[in-house]
Amino acid sequence: MDIDALLAADAAHVWHPYAPVGATPFGVVTGAKGVRLQFSDGSTPIDAMSSWWAAIHGYRHPRLDAALADQVGRVAHVMFGGLTHEPGVTLATRLAAMASGGTPTEGAGGRGGLPHVFFADSGSVSVEVALKMALQAQRGSGHPQRTRFVALEGGYHGDTFGAMSVCDPVGGMHTMFAGALPQNTFLPRPPAGLDADISEWTATCSTILGRLDDPDDDVAAIIIEPVLQGAGGMHIYPPAAVRWLADQASARGWLLILDEIATGFGRTGTMFAFERAGVTPDILCVGKALSAGYLTLAATLCSAQVAAAIEASESGVLMHGPTYMANPLACSVANSSLDLLNEADALGAVGNIGDGLAAGLEPARELPGVIDVRTIGAVGVVQLDRPVDVAAATHASLDHGVWIRPFRDLIYVMPPYITEPADVAQICTSILAATKAGLE
């Protein structure tokens, strides 16, 4: 491989996410195994990002590779409209069980709760599907005027238009599009910390929600990321706030949509973050870790009541149908990933990583320019008092053998669940170095 020629072609033709045309990548990946990437210069940094939170079992896992190879020998893809296949049915059955309180190995549709699964091909699309589900369900329930949503400041739900409309309209990544998006209602983000007092926050929110209480109520649903807001700021907040919002939605006949694209499948220490709050949503979005970083796959789950209301709307069907929904390759890998989550005590591994991150990142509190250090499950965050010098921080971390992707004022990590204690310690050392460099 001629690396110089490859980089020249990259600069000429490839547009990377959240980067200008021609931006120089920090490395050329030629392979990966376990928790380590292999760069063209021979270095093998730990991937502390799990490839944007997806590769929870690391790379080239023999079980996942085998599932993919076996399925490609059967059928790589087939349309899901009017047809079905075993990997998709099995995965839907297992997801329904898990989201309803079961385990990754249970079948038979779980114990009620969220029995219906609609597959999508990315997290953003799963949010689009959730919003459409809510709108159609309200129409089928006799409330066609309910076309708006309530969301949280600091929230992030994806880059497509419907998803952008429920992202933070002021401090989020999509502020430049605010004038072109549907106007929704945003509540202040809950206070920081799992055990924070939410009384002041609920009083403020009650005032805002009170303005929406009238005979022409036009709200279809509340949509939030439970307990941990991801790309909107890595903000950890009390499960009690999730419960309070669920109660508000229920009292008003609104639906509750929970976006667990970043937090699902164990990342925050429970299989789903909403378990901490003791609630069950009407609609649930999952993605990222669903297929363990092998292929793009997402899903939107809903209750039987939501499904029935959608079928009572004018169309009688959910008006959505991605070409690659329930791709057999992705579903096969996802099923194998769920097996691994159960067999490998993923939640125990997440807890151990969390303990290592909490201890290893603690010294960052003493660094000038650091305003907060926080962890939840296998997530570690250092927040600065200014925007990170991304290039300096990234190079400093790579010098310590770790790949990170800082953004805004945050240097954070979400390592694979198979990360060993020594590698967690190395990640923490690299973050301390990155923090110092990112502040200079």
Largest sheet: 7 strands, mixed
Question: What oligomeric state is this?
Answer: single chain
**How many DSSP-defined strands?**
16
Tally of distinct domains: 2
Question: Could you tell me the mean pLDDT?
Answer: 94
Work out the helix count.
13
How are strands sequenced across the largest beta sheet? 4-12-11-10-7-5-6
Topology:
Blueprint: H1 3-13, E1 29-33, E2 36-39, E3 46-47, H2 50-53, H3 62-72, H4 86-99, E4 116-120, H5 123-140, E5 148-152, H6 161-165, E6 185-187, H7 199-210, E7 219-224, E8 228-229, E9 235-236, H8 239-252, E10 255-259, E11 283-286, E12 298-302, H9 304-311, H10 328-343, H11 346-361, E13 370-376, E14 379-384, H12 390-399, E15 402-403, E16 410-413, H13 421-439
Parallel strand pairs: 3-15, 5-6, 5-7, 7-10, 10-11
Antiparallel strand pairs: 1-2, 4-12, 8-9, 11-12, 13-14, 14-16
Helix pairs in contact: 3-10, 4-10, 5-9, 11-13, 12-13
Looking at this protein, list some descriptive labels.
Aspartate Aminotransferase, domain 2; single chain; 440 residues; 16 strands; Aspartate Aminotransferase, domain 1; seven-stranded mixed beta sheet; globular; 13 helices; alpha/beta; 2 domains; three-stranded antiparallel beta sheet
